[in-house]
Write a structure and sequence with these properties.
By secondary structure, the protein is mainly alpha-helical. The protein contains 18 helices and no strands. The protein folds into two domains: 408 residues, MFS general substrate transporter like domains (Growth Hormone, Chain: A); 56 residues. The longest helix is centred in the C-terminal third of the chain and has 38 residues. It starts with a helix and ends in a 20-residue tail after the last helix. This is MFS transporter.
Length: 476
């Protein structure tokens, strides 16, 4: 629970500020063009520094970096909550992301190395995956409650008591495995890998405002790919590589990373569109918009703890992951028929429940399978790679699907706006049309996640690979 609590704090902070953003924008005088940096500063620092954070956890020791990450995250949250201007808030959010990049891989690697028995491992990863998978929805609920009844600043201050509980729990309950003192930090690899990820995520975030054909966006994406190519080349020659390539050469593990990224692209898109749909189109308050996601959160928690955790010890991971992707995609199909006055119970609730059940079947097997059988000295960087695929997938999904929605909505409005007296209705219909087009794409991406899981995740059952064991340099 201590480890899962820390992971919950990291995940919910990616969305808790979303609902509070309009209030923060008014209070600090942010422009419409710059308000995105409240979200992007966090995801850029988090996604770009995760691999480095994972390797630091392996070198220094996981409990030390876990506690350091908690304290730093709480400090950055306090700075953001007390922000006197927009620049101070942007900086605090970037600092949160940097400490999250240390905290998240430390948490998952501690879980991996602590729970090695099949039954215990299933329960532990069930609890962890439930909170990790539902953290985004919990963030939306908490953001609505805190913004409406207290103040937008409490969306940041709330991390402080969570971190305090985590620090005391870490010292009282968590093991303190020593770091690998003989290893060295791969500085060139850190610069190339982190630089490539930051550049790509930044390029995708800029595409939301500039468009995918903008020269700056194309240059950033090309530069990011070039840096990551150089990173892979360097990892084959580095004496102490930041990301040992045998970790991603394993077919099952690579399949888990890719499945996670694709599934999160679809999930983050749904969070984005449903948040705006509920508040802007249907007129929900922030609290009711957040509570509307509660059935999805409950479905994720139930499915991970009561279904995935019990079945993973008996069936192959893809037996859960493939049906999970199909369930999530079928839930998305409910949202492709949205209208400007769709009712919640008949159109939204079934889709949210199906999505929650589907994501619950995906998250837990991905986390457990991707980190199974990894050498203890590599558990931090492997955990970081899982989190990196999740974070980068969310960033890419938000920008990609939002661009599709905006473009489709604009085309619809231009084609149907023939009578000025109906402008307000046509604009609302155009916005909803853009959402539905993007959700079709999200459903297709979710089905692709299921296909990847079915073809690449070939592990039979995790019970023969639950105890961390050394991984050979070359894995077929």
């Amino acid at each position: 629970m201590v480890i899962a609590l820390a992971q919950l704090m990291v995940v919910l902070d990616a969305t808790i500020v979303n609902i509070a953003l309009p209030s923060a924008q008014r209070a600090l005088g942010m422009s419409d063009g710059n308000r995105q940096w409240v979200i992007t500063a966090y995801t850029l620092a988090f996604g770009g520094l995760l691999l480095l954070g994972g390797r630091i956890a392996d070198l220094v020791g996981r409990r030390r970096t876990f506690v350091f990450g908690l304290i730093g995250f709480a400090t950055a949250s306090a700075i953001g909550g007390a922000a006197a201007n927009s620049v101070m808030l942007y900086g605090a959010r970037a600092l949160q992301g940097a400490f999250a990049a240390v905290l998240a891989p430390s948490a998952l690697s501690l879980l991996t190395t602590t729970f090695t028995q099949p039954k215990e491992r299933g329960k532990a990863f069930g609890v962890y995956s439930a909170l990790a998978g539902s953290g985004s929805a919990i963030g939306l609920i908490m953001g609505g409650l805190l913004t409406e009844y207290l103040n937008w600043r409490w969306c940041l201050y709330v991390n402080i008591p969570i971190a305090v509980v985590g620090v005391f729990g870490a010292f009282a309950l968590l093991p303190d495995p020593p770091g690998n003192a003989r290893a060295r930090l791969d500085i060139p690899g850190a610069l190339l890998g982190c630089g490539g990820l930051v550049t790509i995520v930044y390029g995708v975030s800029e595409a939301e405002a500039r468009g995918w054909t903008d020269p700056l966006v194309l240059a950033l994406l090309a530069g990011g790919v070039a840096l990551l190519t150089a990173f892979v080349y360097w990892q084959t020659r580095a004496p102490s590589p930041l990301l040992p390539l045998h970790i991603i050469k394993d077919r099952t593990r690579a399949g888990c990373f890719l499945t996670m990224a694709l599934a999160v692209i679809g999930m983050f898109g749904i969070f984005l569109f449903m948040t705006y749909y509920l508040q802007v189109v249907l007129g929900y308050s922030p609290v009711w918009a957040g509570l509307a996601f509660l059935p999805m959160t409950a479905a994720i928690v139930f499915c991970t703890t009561q279904i995935s955790a019990r079945l993973l010890r008996r069936v192959a991971p893809r037996v859960l992951m493939v049906p999970g992707a199909l369930l999530a995609a079928s839930g998305m199909l409910f949202f492709t028929h949205l209208t400007v006055d769709a009712d919640y119970a008949g159109r939204l609730l079934p889709g949210l429940i199906l999505m929650g059940l589907g994501m619950g079947l995906i998250f837990m097997p991905v986390f457990a399978t991707a980190t199974a059988g990894v050498a203890p000295q590599d558990s931090g960087v492997t955990s970081a790679t899982v989190n990196t695929s999740q974070q980068v997938g969310g960033s890419i999904g938000t920008a990609l699907l939002n661009t599709i929605a905006t473009t489709s909505g604009a085309v619809y409005i231009a084609a149907h706006l023939t009578n000025p007296s109906r402008k307000a209705l046509i604009v609302r219909e155009g916005v909803v049309h853009g959402y539905t087009v993007a959700i079709w794409w999200a459903a297709g991406i979710m089905l692709l996640a299921g296909l990847v899981a079915g073809l690449m995740v070939t592990a039979r059952t995790p019970r023969n690979a639950t105890a961390p064991a050394p991984v050979p340099e070359s894995v077929p």
